[in-house]
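Narrative of accomplishments. A recurring question from our advisory board has been how the design workflow behaves on a single, concrete structure rather than in aggregate. To address it, we present the structure tokens for one chain from the evaluation set, followed by the sequence designed for it. No filtering or post-editing was applied between the two.
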């Protein structure tokens, strides 16, 4: 019987193999044989861990977005534990999102691509895990409104989705078209956007 630790390590290898192959050539063109070969395991090992290629990809999405959600939550909690405001927590989550995308670019490309598809078997799973990530941002936004840091007029669900989307798309654009820029540089630009200073207007907090 494969130990849980060893099985988790095997699954991680399969996730990494699948995400790179699918990013390179698409889901339909990627075979279980190729995934097994890239992961350095037998084909039977793939089916031992996942019932099918679709199940593997569904679990890959769940795993990847779970990692992103945890990193966002940890960043917000750390910022607040250090005495930061709710807006500081949002800024910390922007940085955490950029760090995640810098670490897992192939996964991020797949995730963004799958958001636009409507005919996938894992569409409902994707919706659930996406909402888990967005809910972390919603929680901090709601706290910022309750504390008076942000206006009560803010549409919290849409603003949370917009912040997550901003980080995803800006990071992919950074990596594809502006790779010479540092993570600190990209974060600084998005931080200004968060603070509402892009057009020289007052910050979201209402402070000068």
């Amino acid at each position: 019987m494969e130990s849980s630790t060893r099985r988790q390590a095997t699954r991680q290898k399969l996730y990494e193999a699948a995400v790179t192959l699918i990013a390179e050539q698409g889901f339909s063109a990627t075979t279980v044989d190729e995934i097994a070969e890239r992961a350095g395991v037998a084909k039977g090992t793939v089916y031992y861990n996942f019932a099918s290629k679709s199940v593997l990809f569904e679990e890959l999405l769940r795993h990847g977005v779970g990692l992103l959600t945890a990193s966002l939550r940890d960043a917000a909690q750390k910022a607040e534990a250090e005495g930061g405001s709710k807006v500081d927590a949002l800024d910390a989550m922007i940085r955490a999102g950029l760090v995640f995308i810098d670490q897992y670019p192939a996964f991020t490309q797949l995730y963004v691509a799958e958001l636009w598809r409507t005919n996938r078997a894992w569409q409902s799973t994707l919706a659930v895990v996406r909402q888990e990530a967005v809910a972390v941002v919603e929680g901090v936004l709601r706290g910022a409104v309750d504390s008076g840091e942000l206006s009560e007029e803010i549409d919290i669900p849409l603003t949370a989705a917009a912040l997550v989307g901003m980080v995803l798309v800006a990071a992919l654009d950074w990596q594809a078209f502006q790779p010479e820029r540092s993570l600190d540089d990209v974060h600084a630009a998005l931080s200004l956007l968060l603070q509402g200073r892009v057009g020289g207007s007052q910050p979201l907090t209402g402070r000068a």
